């Protein structure tokens, strides 16, 4: 069947031709994740949403590269681009076999800056620095999209906006004042859009400033303005229904869906392939006048534009439509990426290993590779043990506690070999004395391995069958799972102590306890008093056995870390930064037994390994490294490869160093390496090598709006250096709080022993700008600055002054336009909220004592009247104080009337006294609930 436009027409003509030919119902059918075919026009079915975060996922065996955090740790955009291109190859190969199952709209990369390492999805992001995040994201997206006139795949940036918590993620609101929005969040998203590397965006589950992210006016005001072509906006899975059901932002779905389309949402990911309800709500919105056909046309144009750019309507298929999966070239690339992501955190000379004959590999991650929620199915696995065993003789000890479980008076817990329900079996021993443990250990099916994944999460595995304890039919416990996994993890348990000091097992997923019925079968019970107390024998046995094995080797390699599906994953944040307790116990026992101990951390997030940093000779880290992890690790351990990775996140000494997980205002909270004033365990950018390097004095020149920094790096050691020369700047004076250091660029150098090379790093003067809330624009402030050059944000080797042209930020003009209260310079006890459902932000008191401050307000000869646009759920008072929020003189008192509607803002006025000259002003709220959208003054 002929297409409505000719194949050689311009893309925009093709889109217009299709729009003109489609009926209204056919257009509506294109607004769902599963776009309906229109056979009469030659439109095939189309599906958005193929996961491709670090390789093709969810569709079967495909090359698995290091997690996104690991890819970023390479600090190598070209390598990341090549991984993206290889992932596109495999996506196209699967698409050729199954076009419906493997769509070419890929949902990657994740560009949320990694503000807090406790975020459950930390492994999915790239860096806490927004500039570095944008750089790596653009590289990966470019690899996915390709460089030709047609897109190979259509990359989608996730998740817009302010999304770094899983706890109550659909109902929590992320406060993003203007400077945090413009200086921290948006710079991670905009580069890939401006360069045309990404062509779609997915909003996040959370609210931003009290408004659901899926309804954000920033979609049109900022994102589409940055994209050179039509931008497709796809919802996150099941997020549209949240607008009514969880977020209660609208009374019904037609109203909510109409608002979403008007705000810029083009594709609804709702109810899987069942489109009827979603499309019905859109039709209802049209019938009720909440939408016009022009709104539908705009969304459909975005959807069709991506399909045109994928070459769907070209006369001949694009040569880029061919591809292959898990090729030798992709395997080699997976090994290269894994090798270059490994980061040396500490080394007192033990590494690289030399003259080693026997290595003890120890730890829960020593002989396993784990998939995360967004990884592909591993086509094969090279574990740490296997990679090291290919070099030298190895002995292995998992280090998991080997335990038995028994009840008081009823025998031992046994897992039948056929995977049937766990039950109690009499062992013939009377009572539960210490000697009975040996009897229970000889009972078939009575021995379990207890694996500690941190945060109190344990998994129980039958030592006999290797299968994990799982929730079976009707809440019975069975031993049939290959490991913790799937969307609902039902294989993890807490070991809690009851009032009598006995152990109670609690399933983490449901919070239900384990009890034993009259049939002696173990099952989950609802009432706490139905729980059965257990005796757990064998705790600590893993550490003892690990120490014994380690003592027989020249070197001990302890491989520790997280399970990507447990205690830190989508839907679950971490509560702390601690290494799992049992794994820490194993590490300490091994270190005592063998001083030549290396700690290898494999994790999707930082750990506070303070004891290890003081006592273990060498520490390596990598994210979960994919199928070639073992080979890559061995290459680095034995010195065949230089450790090339660098941290893209600060490693803190304790979670106490972090702001509240839900505090997104990194400026006032002093979050991330940009503002952190403490002493980190390992700073942003940290990563050691096997050789020594020396830095010369940097030269800095400014020419034509461009800053160029050059510094000579000399290799004074015996090996070739893989150096990442990092350039930071610091503004020494400002009218507002500015970063203590900010990454501006880096250069990777390979320097031969005894040689030297010059690193050259350039950046634009405009990159030094901050967002001026007095005039709502970026400004390079007139101020002294420094350039720092070094190996990390905490290892500065040299510095130089930086002089660039700038402008003074003037005081706020008290008598100009009304100021938005959300543009405060500092605040305490407030939250941001919407002024209307569609747009505008206000400041609302969230505590009985709250304030928002504005520095440097020019009141001239004095102000006679102040006007606030306000809202409150009860009558309350807002005071205007000068100079200090607590002790400063009160210049005005505003009475805020009660309103039934949180969007019913009204203007109130009050006489202003004693306010003249340039002063700091504070809106001080007395009692929670009052909100201020804007304020203005009238002259005396």
UniProtKB/TrEMBL annotation:
The keyword Repeat does not apply. Its EC number is 3.2.1.21. This is Beta-glucosidase. GO terms for biological process: arabinan catabolic process; xylan catabolic process. CDD domains: beta-trefoil_FSCN_BglX-like, CBM6_xylanase-like. Residues 812-939 form the Cellulose binding type IV domain. Belongs to the glycosyl hydrolase 3 family. It comes from Nocardiopsis aegyptia. Residues 723-793 form the Fibronectin type III-like domain. InterPro entries: Actin-crosslinking (IPR008999), BXL (IPR044993), CBM6 (IPR005084), Cellulose-bd_IV (IPR006584), Fn3-like (IPR026891), Galactose-bd-like_sf (IPR008979), GH (IPR017853), Glyco_hydro_3_C (IPR002772). Gene3D superfamilies: 2.60.120.380, Galactose-binding domain-like, Glycoside hydrolase family 3 C-terminal domain, Glycoside hydrolase, family 3, N-terminal domain, Immunoglobulins.
């Amino acid at each position: 069947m002929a297409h409505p436009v000719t194949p050689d027409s311009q893309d925009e003509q093709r889109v217009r031709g299709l729009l003109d030919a489609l009926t209204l119902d056919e257009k509506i059918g294109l607004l769902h994740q599963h776009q309906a075919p229109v056979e009469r026009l030659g439109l095939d079915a189309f599906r958005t949403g193929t996961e491709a975060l670090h390789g093709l996922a969810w569709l079967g065996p495909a090359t698995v590269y290091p997690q996104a955090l690991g890819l970023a740790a390479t600090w190598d955009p070209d390598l990341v681009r090549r991984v993206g291109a290889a992932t596109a190859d495999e996506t196209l190969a699967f698409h050729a076999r199954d076009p419906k199952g493997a769509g070419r709209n890929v949902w990657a990369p994740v560009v949320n800056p990694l503000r807090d390492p406790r975020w459950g999805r930390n492994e999915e992001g790239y860096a806490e620095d927004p500039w570095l995040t944008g750089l790596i994201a653009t590289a990966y997206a470019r690899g996915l999209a390709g460089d030709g006139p047609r897109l190979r795949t259509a990359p989608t940036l996730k998740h817009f906006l302010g999304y770094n918590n899983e706890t109550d993620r659909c109902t929590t609101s992320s406060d993003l004042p203007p400077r945090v929005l413009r200086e921290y969040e948006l710079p991670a998203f905009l580069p890939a859009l401006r360069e045309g590397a990404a062509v779609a965006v997915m909003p996040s589950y959370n609210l931003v400033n009290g408004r659901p992210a899926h309804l954000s006016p920033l979609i049109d005001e900022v994102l589409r303005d940055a994209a050179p072509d039509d931008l497709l906006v796809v919802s996150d899975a099941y997020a549209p229904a949240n607008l009514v059901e969880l977020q209660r932002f609208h009374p019904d779905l037609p109203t909510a869906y109409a608002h979403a389309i008007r705000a810029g949402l083009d594709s609804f990911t709702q109810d899987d392939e069942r489109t009827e309800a979603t499309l019905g709500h859109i039709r209802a919105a049209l019938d009720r006048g909440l939408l016009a056909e022009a709104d539908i046309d705009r969304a459909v144009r975005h959807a069709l534009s991506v399909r045109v750019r994928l070459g769907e309507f070209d006369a001949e298929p694009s040569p880029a439509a061919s591809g292959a999966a898990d090729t030798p070239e992709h395997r080699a690339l997976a090994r290269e990426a894994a090798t270059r992501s490994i980061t040396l955190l500490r080394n007192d000379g033990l590494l690289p290993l030399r003259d080693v004959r026997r290595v003890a590999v120890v730890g829960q991650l020593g002989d396993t590779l784990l998939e995360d929620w967004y990884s592909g199915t591993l086509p094969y696995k090279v574990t740490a043990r296997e990679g090291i065993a290919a070099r030298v003789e190895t002995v292995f000890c998992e280090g998991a506690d080997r335990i038995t479980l028994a009840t008081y008076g009823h025998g031992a817990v046994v897992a039948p070999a056929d995977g049937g329900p766990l039950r109690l079996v009499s062992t013939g021993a009377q009572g539960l004395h210490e000697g009975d443990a040996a009897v229970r250990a000889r009972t078939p099916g009575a021995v379990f391995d207890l694996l500690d994944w941190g945060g109190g999460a344990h998994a129980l595995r039958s030592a006999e069958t290797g299968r994990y304890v799982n929730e079976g039919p009707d809440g019975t416990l069975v031993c049939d799972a290959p490991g913790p996994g799937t969307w609902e993890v039902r294989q993890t348990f807490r070991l809690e102590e009851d009032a009598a000091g006995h152990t109670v097992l609690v399933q983490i997923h449901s919070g239900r306890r384990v009890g034993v019925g009259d049939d002696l079968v173990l099952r989950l019970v609802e009432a706490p008093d139905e729980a059965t107390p257990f005796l757990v024998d064998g705790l600590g046995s893993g550490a003892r056995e690990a120490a014994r094995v380690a003592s027989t080797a020249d070197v001990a390699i302890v491989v520790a870390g997280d399970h990507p599906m447990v205690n830190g994953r989508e839907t679950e944040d971490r509560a702390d930064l601690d290494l799992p307790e049992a794994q820490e116990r194993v590490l300490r026992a091994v270190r005592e037994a063998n001083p030549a101990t290396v700690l290898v951390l494999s994790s999707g997030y930082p750990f506070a390994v303070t004891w290890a940093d003081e006592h273990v000779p060498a520490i390596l880290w990598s994210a979960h490294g994919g199928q070639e992890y073992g080979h890559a690790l061995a290459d680095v351990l034995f010195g065949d490869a230089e450790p090339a990775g660098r941290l893209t996140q600060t490693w803190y000494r304790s979670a106490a160093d972090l702001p509240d997980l839900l505090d997104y205002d990194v400026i006032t909270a002093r979050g991330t390496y940009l503002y952190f004033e403490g002493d980190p365990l390992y700073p942003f950018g940290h990563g050691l090598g096997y050789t020594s390097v020396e830095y010369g004095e940097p030269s800095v020149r400014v020419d034509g709006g461009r800053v160029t920094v050059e510094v000579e790096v000399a290799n004074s050691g015996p090996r070739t250096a893989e150096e990442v020369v990092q350039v930071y700047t610091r503004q020494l004076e400002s009218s507002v709080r500015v970063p203590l250091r900010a990454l501006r660029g880096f250069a990777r150098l390979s320097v031969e022993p005894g040689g030297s090379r010059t690193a050259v790093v350039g950046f634009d003067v405009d990159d030094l700008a901050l967002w001026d809330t007095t005039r709502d624009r970026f400004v390079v402030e007139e101020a002294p600055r420094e350039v720092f050059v070094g190996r990390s944000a905490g290892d500065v080797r040299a510095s130089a002054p930086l002089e660039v042209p700038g402008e003074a930020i003037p005081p706020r003009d008290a008598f100009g336009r009304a100021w938005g209260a959300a543009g405060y310079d500092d605040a305490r006890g407030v939250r941001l909220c919407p002024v209307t459902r569609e747009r505008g932000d206000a400041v609302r008191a969230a505590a009985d004592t709250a304030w928002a401050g504005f520095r440097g307000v020019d009141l001239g000869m004095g102000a006679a009247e102040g006007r606030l646009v306000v809202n409150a759920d009860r009558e309350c008072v807002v005071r205007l104080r000068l100079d200090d929020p607590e002790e400063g003189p009160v210049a005005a008192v505003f009475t805020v009337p009660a309103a039934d509607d949180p969007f019913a803002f009204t203007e109130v006025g009050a006489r202003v006294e004693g306010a003249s000259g340039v002063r700091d002003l504070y809106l001080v709220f007395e009692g929670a609930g009052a909100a201020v959208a804007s304020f203005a003054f009238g002259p005396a």
